[in-house]
Amino acid sequence: MTVSADTTAGDEPPAVAAIRTGSASSMPAADHRDRLVVAMAELLAEQGYASVTVTDVVARARVSKRTFYQHFTDREECLLATYRVVAEGPLHMIAQAAESAAGSGLSLREEIASVTGAYLAAMAEHPLLTRAMLTEPGSTGPAGRSARREVMRRFADQLVALAAGVGSRSGGRPLPPALAQALVGGINELVLAAVESADREGVAPADIAAEILALRDTVTDLAVAVLARRD
């Protein structure tokens, strides 16, 4: 599966939908790469990257090791491919929310709240996977840091485009790319603080999801302050 430069509100790619809905078993057997990516995502949520082996991934995906190495050179490359695919979920939901809000007569804050709510809902769907995606790729060295910057840039680019649309309708200001990157980084840190509660003994995924969703007002306030700023 390839990741497009721009995410629209159209149909979700199959691997993204399978990860989001937990429907990996319904994926066509011939979609080997997607099956491997979905398997890696499931295992990351269950046990963390350090414990995942290629043997685990191929067993979950129900493919051979030979098939794995036809698509990925090693476990790390599979992880980073999974990271890029998982990022498509929130990007897709943001695009859908923005499309729904456009032309609806909402205020600046209401329109931003619909978008931030969609983003947080996507992150809360699978909180243990969200934790893995926020922490694991950057620990794999230069390739992981590069993948993380790529995904952060895609979120920032989407925010720039969304801000242009919101601003034209609701009086918000254009969002410079550097400021968009800072906003994405700040929001991710808030989400990371919420998902790190999973490290506390006895915390259920539903409780982590609730902590993520509880960030909506804070994230909305932050985004509105940036878009309504006075230079």
Automatic annotation (TrEMBL):
The keyword Mitochondrion does not apply. Residues 30-90 form the HTH tetR-type domain. Keywords: DNA-binding, Transcription, Transcription regulation. Pfam families: TetR_N (PF00440). Residues 53-72 bind DNA. Residues 1-26 are annotated as: Disordered. InterPro entries: Homeodomain-like_sf, HTH-type_TetR-like_transc_reg, HTH_TetR. This is TetR/AcrR family transcriptional regulator. The lineage of its organism: Bacteria, Bacillati, Actinomycetota, Actinomycetes, Pseudonocardiales.
